[in-house]
Amino acid sequence: MSKHGRVLVAMSGGVDSSVTALMLHEQGYEVVGVTMKTWDYAAGGTGKRVTGCCDLDSINDAREMAVRLGFHHMIIDLREEFGPKIIGNFTGEYMAGRTPNPCVLCNTFIKWEALLKRADMLDCELIATGHYAKVREENGRFVISKGADHAKDQSYVLWGLEQKNLARTRFPVGGFKKSEIRGMAEKGGFPELARKSDSYEICFIPDNDYRGFLKRKDPAAFEKLAHGKLVGTNGAALGEHDGYPFFTIGQRKGLGIATGKPMYVTEIIPETNTVVLGDKEDLDKHTAWVRSPNFQKVDALLGEMETVTKIRYKDRGTPATIAMHGEHVRVDFHSKVAGIAPGQSAVFYEGDDVVGGGFIDREPV
């Protein structure tokens, strides 16, 4: 009989999720490991070496740990759910002139939903993942905060999780540095795991070539988008491009033209297949609009609130005042912010705590 109960652990085969399982096993939980197969790597069509999480080697690494430690492990096939919801959204967002964030959607609509469903089937009280974040209960609400290793913090991609999900979630590695997690793997008898490199690519684009992925998904559409317009902020023609989905706000390299000075993508207009280029200063904005917000630390946003808002994963964050305006959150930054890209996530922090977040949108009409 388990000392603490039964916990379902998401195991990608990487060091973080594996040490999560190891820690909980050593603490006396009855661990059930589960690896989620979201993408058919053999049919990826890249012709390049796969380095993403949850490929066959990673699945085998997760299974090997479970066998050595003596707990159950299973694989669940989520390709049918993952394709329309995540890959479909990914391609759809680029075709709409936005820059998607598939990890946020996957966490919110695929991983947690799948984990909790299996947890109920297997009588697991809790679920656990290897995310570098923390979760606690405060004033009747469950609050996510940054992991102890701020360089590895993943709270940004977890803003979409609802209270009912957070109530059953644990992040065991969140209180440790990455170096400590590698040390635990070594000490636990898994030296190869301790030296395993991290995966930074989007899982269904292991070669990190999203442009090639988009073209392979719908080559006919991109044939029609060839010879699109590159224009300056004043409307002057600067050249042509091979399709607006190949660009993102703030992009400087790979523009396909030489102007004698650095130019940046400042706007994408899908209706006319136009990409607008400007100076670095043209990227600076004071305001962002955020749709589909989810709040964690507060039940709802009433009035104005002072936060530090991050507009991308590696963003340090900028002090801002947030308030609801209809169905959108208006974010008024206290200083200019560069490269606000529709489709990316804006996440609101109070200290290390996640207040909530949403998807950056164009200004509502």
**Alpha-beta classification:** alpha/beta
- CATH second-level architecture of the largest domain: 3-Layer(aba) Sandwich
Summarize the biggest pleated sheet.
6 strands, antiparallel, barrel
SSE order, one letter for each helix or strand: EHEHEHHEEEHEHHHHEEEEEEEEEE
Number of helices: 9
List keywords for this structure.
Elongation Factor Tu (Ef-tu), domain 3; 365 residues; single chain; 3 domains; Rossmann fold; 9 helices; alpha/beta; globular; SH3 type barrels; 5-stranded parallel sheet; 6-stranded antiparallel beta barrel; 26% helix
In words, what does this structure look like?
The protein has 365 residues and is an alpha/beta fold. The protein folds into three domains: 6-194, Rossmann fold (3-Layer(aba) Sandwich), CATH 3.40.50; 225-278, SH3 type barrels (Roll); 284-361, Elongation Factor Tu (Ef-tu), domain 3, CATH 2.40.30.10. 26% of the residues lie in helices and 30% in strands. The chain is built from nine helices and 17 strands. The chain has helices spanning 15-26, 56-69, 79-95, 102-121, 163-166, 178-187, 191-194, 210-217, 219-225; strands at residues 6-10, 30-37, 72-77, 126-128, 133-138, 141-146, 169-170, 228-232, 237-241, 264-269, 274-278, 284-295, 305-310, 318-325, 328-338, 345-350, 353-361. Strands 12-15-14-13-16-17 form a six-stranded antiparallel β-barrel. The model is unreliable at 45-52 (pLDDT under 50).
Give a short overview.
By secondary structure, the chain is of the alpha/beta class.
Layout of secondary structure:
Blueprint lengths: L5 E5 L4 H12 L3 E8 L18 H14 L2 E6 L1 H17 L6 H20 L4 E3 L4 E6 L2 E6 L16 H4 L2 E2 L7 H10 L3 H4 L15 H8 L1 H7 L2 E5 L4 E5 L22 E6 L4 E5 L5 E12 L9 E6 L7 E8 L2 E11 L6 E6 L2 E9 L4
Parallel strand pairs: 1-2, 1-4, 2-3, 4-7, 8-11
Antiparallel strand pairs: 5-6, 8-9, 10-11, 12-15, 12-17, 13-14, 13-16, 14-15, 16-17
